[in-house]
Q: What sequence folds into this?
């Protein structure tokens, strides 16, 4: 039976991506991606955040994506382990996520669709609750449960 090597990440880009062009014209994009999980500490009963950093690499058309530091993105790909020799001749190992898909989810506050800071523009991805949203939510909570046997 064949195995599956599939990774799906949603997180924020840690720094502006590096784009490298090989001699044959193929482009590579690489950047770090932060994913954060929240959990409740049992001893203090406080919420804690745990952030993991992932090295993301993409080739060809993915290198033309207009992403920047702070953007929230969706990455789909596979885990790759790579060995290389550093300047001192030591063998080094690195784990990367080789991206097959990169989709923009949100720009940081004040950035427009080109990824550049645009002054006092409000973030279009922020949605505010209205009074009708709250009333609809309250109505849903008051709805009696179904009498299902399972």
A:
């Amino acid at each position: 039976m064949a195995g599956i090597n599939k990774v799906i990440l949603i997180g924020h880009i840690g720094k502006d991506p590096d784009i490298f062009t090989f001699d044959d014209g193929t482009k590579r994009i690489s950047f770090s991606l932060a994913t954060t999980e929240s959990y409740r500490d049992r001893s203090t009963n406080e919420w804690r955040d745990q952030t993991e950093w992932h090295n993301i690499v993409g080739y060809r058309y993915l290198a033309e994506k207009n992403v920047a530091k702070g953007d929230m993105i969706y990455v789909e790909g596979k885990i790759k382990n790579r060995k290389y020799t550093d300047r001192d001749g030591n063998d080094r190992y690195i784990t990367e996520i080789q991206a097959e898909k990169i989709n923009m989810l949100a720009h940081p506050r004040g950035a427009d669709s080109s990824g550049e800071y645009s002054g006092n523009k409000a973030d279009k991805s922020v949605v505010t609750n209205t009074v009708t949203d709250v009333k609809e939510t309250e109505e849903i909570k008051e709805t009696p449960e179904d009498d299902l046997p399972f």
About this structure: Residues 131-142 form the longest helix (12 residues). The radius of gyration is 21 Å.
